[in-house]
């Protein structure tokens, strides 16, 4: 049976937040009207050295929709997710994200956009476009956002964009660095603060 949605969580040493990330993702999917359509929650763990995997195992026992990819090399999470995701639409996050941003991204896809981006927060994308663009991409979420934007721009299209929440000077500086890592060949280092 084809999945309607894959929510993809890119994880590395997210022990303090992983339980809330999973619960929030499930709540968002259910609140946007999954209406019994199957979905999956794909947790891609990039060789965490904390208890992220242990917590995911406990959550997996309670959530049949949760699938776990473990021991993924750093910088390869997007590729592995693109190869493993089963949904018609993907929602990708690498940190604890405001549920309203996730809902906004999913609504953009429902309303005909091929992709929706909140810089450094989420990427919502049609599976066909995601597989084509992200299936060979090293790096993390921001690299994936840039690749999808570049591909759509080359086709004369644009993704839906929403400004990132103002999280302060440190987060803005980190987002700036993450956006430029690919330009200097370091896209494998694209990950949120604290990982």
From TrEMBL:
Protein's name according to its UniProt entry: Glycosyl transferase family 2
Species: Nannocystis radixulma
